[in-house]
Amino acid sequence: MSGSAFNAFKSRVPVAWSPRLYITLVRGLPGTRRLHRRTLEAMRLRRCHRTVEHRTTPSLLGMLTQVKRLVAVETEEMYNVRKQAEAERRALRPPLVVSHRPPPPTPKPAAAAAEGAAANAQ
């Protein structure tokens, strides 16, 4: 079963071709094999949730295949969209103003007051 076509397909890195790849370590290093830790060290990934940028080469794709369950791979476009969305979420928003007092009474305009006085006089 281990030599099935599905496993061969699953082992390839499913990334659209891009000249640069952004690789993020998403799982921790404790408990991983020494070979995987050395591969991540070669890719300059030493801490969780850190992102590095690499040129797309066959050797890099081979390393990614080896540690695919520990990393997230993004193309340049995907990375830029994600960073822009994060910046929008962190952007300053106008303050919310909540007033619990009733609004002050608005003064009546002079024309409306004159009509009201004329109606009261009749």
Automatic annotation (TrEMBL):
Pfam families: Ribosomal_L30
Biased composition regions of type Low complexity, renumbered to the chain: 109-122
Keyword field contains Ribonucleoprotein: yes
CDD domains, alphabetized: Ribosomal_L30
All copies of domain Large ribosomal subunit protein uL30-like ferredoxin-like fold, residue ranges: 22-71
Keyword Plastid: no
GO MF annotations in UniProt: structural constituent of ribosome
Gene Ontology biological-process entries: translation
Disordered, as annotated region: 85-122
Alphabetized UniProt keyword annotations: Ribonucleoprotein, Ribosomal protein
Any one Gene Ontology cellular component term annotated for this protein: mitochondrion
NCBIfam families attached to this UniProt entry: rpmD_bact
Family membership: Belongs to the universal ribosomal protein uL30 family.
Name this protein carries in UniProt: Large ribosomal subunit protein uL30m
Organism: Miscanthus lutarioriparius
